[in-house]
Amino acid sequence: MKSEITIGHATGDQPVTFDIEELLATRLLVQGNSGSGKSHLLRRLLEESAGMVQQVVIDPEGDFTSLADHFGHVVIDAEAYSPPEIEALARRCREHRASVVLGLEGLEVEQQIRCSAQFLNALFDAPREFWFPALVVVDEAQMFAPSVAGEIAEDTRRMTLSAMTNLMCRGRKRGLAGIVATQRLAKLAKNVAAEASNFLMGRTFLDIDMIRAADLLGMERRQAERIRDLERGHFLALGPAISRRPVAVKIGSVRSGQVTRNDGLMPLPDMPREGMEALLTSELAADVQAHAPAPPPAPPRPKVEEVVPAVEPQAIAARSTAEQAEADATRQMQVNTILEELAMEEGSTFQSSSVQYQNFLTRCRAGRILGVPMDMTEFRRAFAIASAGLERLDEGRRRQLLQLGAGVDDDVLAPYLAIAAAALEGKTAPEDEELARVYGSSSPGRIRRLLDHLEKLGLIVIREEFGGGRSLLVPGIDALSAAEG
After folding, report:
1. How much is the pTM?
2. Sheet containing 234-239: order of strands
């Protein structure tokens, strides 16, 4: 049986072929920014090899369900099944060699990750007699194999990393050939990316992604600019299943692609302003009512023995409101105290966000604070503010600095506030040890790159002195100082 397919054409219309048998043994990594043609490439590969090998597609955005209309893939809507049923479906896919698309678009992100991990683990754990060859395509792989801990639960992160590592590292002996596609190489776990021997690198603009892509392709770093100049649908290909040397390839056409979206310009409707205004504003109340959510069901009637006679209801309501406000204020003070103590502990800023968050929740439980005081997103910003060391400033100055840093990203907020606080106090820069503490790194190189990044964002201005000194200026600090004066 012929095992080669044509993935596209190189310069001069020379066809570029892909050896599917070799791919089953060596795996594939695809990288490309949004709009580079990454999904088109995966679709071309799936279409051309549909009659050769079983295919399993993990589809978080619903991009590949149209394969069912042309090639007979079975679409599994993950939203309609329980976790045990998902695992049973995976086992049956291996047993009957069915090509399937696991559609995850109806689930929340963490549910998508857990569902795909359970499905992949069930594929991996299938009985030996069902170890038939299969291509397993995972789109948006940075979600399922993140390089760093994000905002998902720790048990979810471990589950999905284990599933993806099994697929890419140990799947070959079980007939599973992983094909992972990602928008950001820097966000994909290195132990997952390193197991691929074939690469298709599309357009990317960030230096860190270009350098990693050039390293994987065996190119010198000064040649990495070539990746930035790639057009949509053009990729650099390398690997034993494609070519022993990097080759530029333009991906061929597909048959099952979606045609509902147009990325180009199209003329606006030819309508006078009055007509358009009427379309937008007429019968607006009826539209709101039609799309309003259904009212919640009425609560059950209380039992007679549960009814408490009302005595002075207004006084009771006022007292309960005041007591609740006082309780909330006390709880918030306890949370703030725990947060400040954690942020000022030695070495705490050098830990990952997930470890910091788990320590925070543990201390809240030990302090008998019920519930979850804040989610991961709120915690990261609150921890950055607490670790910036603003307690030495008065309340007015702290409030002004927080307003100045309102639009700053969480990952650089703490060092920015530390630099701004030092500038507000008339210092040229915070101490190196203080900057290293709030940023969570003792590496001079990382600190230097941090300052360069803040300057590129327009948050600070670096002034190098001839004598080797350095001053950090913060736009907007002068206005705060003048307002105080």
Report:
1. 0.54
2. 15-19, 4-9, 243-251, 234-239, 198-201, 28-31, 176-182, 134-138, 54-59, 100-103, 74-77
